[in-house]
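U., I forgot to send this yesterday:
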Amino acid sequence: MKSTELYDEPLVVAFAADHPFVERDMVTLERIAQEPYLDRLACEFRDTFIAESAARGQTIRFVARSEREDWIQRLVLAGAGVTILPAESVVVDGLMTRPGDAPSVWRTVSLAVPYGREDTAPVRAFLAAAREFDWGAVVGRS
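Result:
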């Protein structure tokens, strides 16, 4: 596979609109650990988040777990707890988010093409468009 990096995406803390986090500009890991936590089992950052929490001496209080992204986000929206997720992965309208303070928890979004396939005209055009696109504007960065 030949990959092209498009943009970096941080994880954010997600919570209901009436949660006290709405008053904050950023949410610390220590504050997250004080809340009921809704665990996204399919999250590629789950192990990193748990390890970062342990390294800071924080114990996360898991109250529900699911591989279904929409279920976890609907529970968050209903006020059952908080979760972390990639900034552009919010799928439930009304969910509030704030950045967290864990600098090592982010992902790079890339486009991958099997070797040999990148030489076709349509794929070359698609890759060129992806490379030229202003991804920063879409994900809230300049």
